Amino acid sequence: SRMQERKLKIVTGVVISNSGDKSIKIAIDFKVRHPKYGKYVKRRTKLGVHDEHNQAGAGDVVEVAECRPYSKTKSWRLVKVVERAVQQREA
What we know:
Keywords: Ribonucleoprotein, Ribosomal protein, RNA-binding, rRNA-binding. With 91 residues, this protein is mainly beta. The protein has no helices and five strands. The protein has strands spanning 10-17, 23-33, 40-50, 61-66, 74-83. The termini are far apart.
């Protein structure tokens, strides 16, 4: 069978929400140059991500890959948790 060799699109972002079951929302921050004024402006993209084992928590840095649509808003899946968020201890 002819299998197409497809490079997976993988991006890194920070988890901003993990309220749903098996779902997280991540933010990818980047800077883009303004076309007219040349100033670099901060931009943010939010992605819905499928997290099968509920392993990512809010504030974690994660790696996600593009995949088939899991739902209307989710077409990315969690690859790995790169860095855990620092837990705040209550005094």
